[in-house]
Design goal:
This protein has about 160 residues and is an alpha+beta fold. Strands 1-2-3-4 form a 4-stranded antiparallel sheet.
C-alpha cells in the first residue's frame, strides 16, 4: 500500500516544478521596459557630476564629438529624436548652463504615468525632479514635466518624441 504522505510529497514537488517553470519566471512588462528606458535616458541626460570637467571650448562640452553623443543616446532614443536634440543643441544647453552657473546636476525623482499604449507605441507623462548643487554649497530643486512618445524598435522601447 502506498503511503499517503509520499503522495503528498510527490504532488508538492510537481506543483513546485510547475510554478518554477511557469509562474516564477515572470516577464517584465512592456510598460516596465519603457519606464526603464525613460529613467536611464533622464539620468544620462541630466547627470553632471563635475561641472568643472565640462569643456566649453568644444561645442558639446562633455562629449568629445557628436558621434559620441549619438552612440551613447542610441540605447534610449530613436535616430529621429537624437537628430532633433542635436539640431536644438539640447545636450549642450544643459552642460553650458551647469558650467557657467557652477552647479552639478542629478535626477532625484522620476514619476512616469502611462497615457496610452498599443503594440508598438507608448505615450507617457513624466515629471522629474532635478537636484542642483552649486559651487557655493547652496542647493536647488527644479521640476521638469512633459509627455513622451516611445516606439518599439527591434524589440526595445526608445524615445521618439518629447513635448515639454
Amino acid at each position: 500500500m502506498t503511503n499517503p504522505r509520499n503522495k503528498l510529497v510527490v504532488a508538492l514537488l510537481i506543483l513546485i516544478a510547475f510554478i518554477t517553470s511557469h509562474g516564477c519566471a515572470a516577464e517584465v512588462s512592456d510598460i516596465d521596459k519603457a519606464k526603464e528606458t525613460v529613467t536611464q535616458f533622464m539620468n544620462f541626460t541630466y547627470t553632471i557630476s563635475d561641472y568643472t570637467s565640462l569643456d566649453l571650448s568644444v561645442p558639446d562640452g562633455l562629449y568629445t564629438s557628436i558621434e559620441e553623443y549619438e552612440q551613447l543616446a542610441e540605447s534610449y532614443a530613436t535616430q529621429r529624436f537624437i537628430d532633433r536634440n542635436l539640431s536644438h543643441r539640447f545636450p549642450w544647453g544643459i552642460r553650458k548652463s551647469a558650467a557657467k552657473n557652477e552647479f552639478n546636476l542629478k535626477v532625484s525623482n522620476i514619476i512616469l504615468d502611462q497615457i496610452e499604449q498599443d503594440e508598438d507605441e507608448i505615450y507617457m507623462d513624466y515629471e522629474i525632479t532635478l537636484h542642483l548643487s552649486y559651487q557655493d554649497g547652496s542647493q536647488e530643486e527644479v521640476l521638469k514635466s512633459g509627455k513622451l512618445q516611445l516606439l518599439k524598435v527591434d524589440d526595445k522601447w526608445k524615445i521618439n518624441h518629447e513635448k515639454s
